[in-house]
Amino acid sequence: MRAVIVHAFGKNGRIALGERPAPVPGPDDLLIRIDAVAVNFVDLLVIDGAYQFLPDPPFSPGKMPAGTVSAIGGAVRGFKPGDRVLALAEQGGYAEMIAVPQSQCFHLPASLSCTDAASMALAFDTAWFALVERARLQPGDSVLVLGATGAVGHAAVHLAKAKGARVLAGISGPHRAAAARDAGADGLVDLSAENLRDSLRAQIHAQNDGQGVDIVLDPLGGDIFDAAIRALSWGGRLVVIGFAAGRIPTIKANYLLLKNIEVSGLQISDYRKRMPDRMAECIGDIFALYDAGALRPLPATTFALADFAEALQLVRTRKADGRVVLLPHAGGAP
């Protein structure tokens, strides 16, 4: 089968389209024809050798592909060839086929295409765990989503609104306002404003009845984290998702005491490994909300597997408008 193969880590490492033996499913595995897989920023970290969990080369990157079951192992129950599924694979998605344990696979709703499933994957489950598990979101909470027009931010805006929150979208400038409004944000916070340390809090207070927000989701870090933590209400919760802004921030512990605030982190891969039942609840909730029309994935720009380098560069340079998705069996979006 064709697959994108990483032979050596590094931004100047060796990665190429090549041939690998087709996987053979074990007794508990599904053999899946991969129809779509998103290109995520975390894939670049893995390829560069900068991620905390790294497979041994050679390997194929690509998390959480969507596709069609081609064959099943003898112990598999509840799946059959022809079923469309999302697979919670940590690697191997940039390929034509993959074998995944049945416990890590979920039926797609009839209304959800494989391309849209791939577009939602890793973004909506990350947002779900940040909001529901780590931040303990309740209806009526106010939520500031930083990086609101990125994949995880877009998902978080949709999910928070679907669960009854008031959502303020943190955007990189006025040019992102329309996208944030379209996602359902109740208000906007301009992260390009001068003196962000004070202006971020002022913008929030002006749109939230003079109060701070109950929850902040932060995939950015850096100076934005420093400003956002000052905008939490008493008893507020901030969830660290990543550091896309570059600098990993620090905080003095006494600040946590002053307003009884919490700062927690989210590593989504650990939930797949340590709490599979909770992950199943997450995926089930996301699919149900999608089927009910409450969630909408970002539009996808699709690439053939042979054009993986162009797709990766689009993500690396942050020039993608929406999600970037590989179609390993190119010829149309399934």
Description of the structure:
The structure is a single chain. The protein has 334 residues and is of the alpha/beta class. It has 2 domains: 2-122 and 298-327, Medium-chain alcohol dehydrogenases, catalytic domain (Quinone Oxidoreductase, Chain A, domain 1, Alpha-Beta Complex), CATH 3.90.180.10; 124-269, Medium-chain alcohol dehydrogenases, catalytic domain (Quinone Oxidoreductase, Chain A, domain 1, Alpha-Beta Complex), CATH 3.90.180. It has 11 helices and 15 strands. It has helices at 41-48, 114-120, 124-134, 151-162, 177-183, 196-207, 222-229, 253-258, 268-274, 276-291, 308-316, and strands spanning 2-8, 14-19, 29-38, 66-72, 84-87, 97-101, 105-107, 142-145, 166-171, 187-190, 213-218, 232-240, 262-265, 300-304, 323-327. The strands form 3 sheets. Strands 3, 4, 5, 6, 7, 14 and 15 form a 7-stranded mixed sheet that branches. Strand 14 (300-304), helix 11 (308-316) and strand 15 form a beta-alpha-beta unit. Helix 6 crosses helix 7. The longest helix is centred in the last third of the chain and has 16 residues, at 276-291. It is globular. The model has no long low-confidence stretch (mean pLDDT 95).
In short:
Helices cover 31% and strands 25% of the residues.
Write the layout of secondary structure elements.
Layout: E1 2-8, E2 14-19, E3 29-38, H1 41-48, E4 66-72, E5 84-87, E6 97-101, E7 105-107, H2 114-120, H3 124-134, E8 142-145, H4 151-162, E9 166-171, H5 177-183, E10 187-190, H6 196-207, E11 213-218, H7 222-229, E12 232-240, H8 253-258, E13 262-265, H9 268-274, H10 276-291, E14 300-304, H11 308-316, E15 323-327
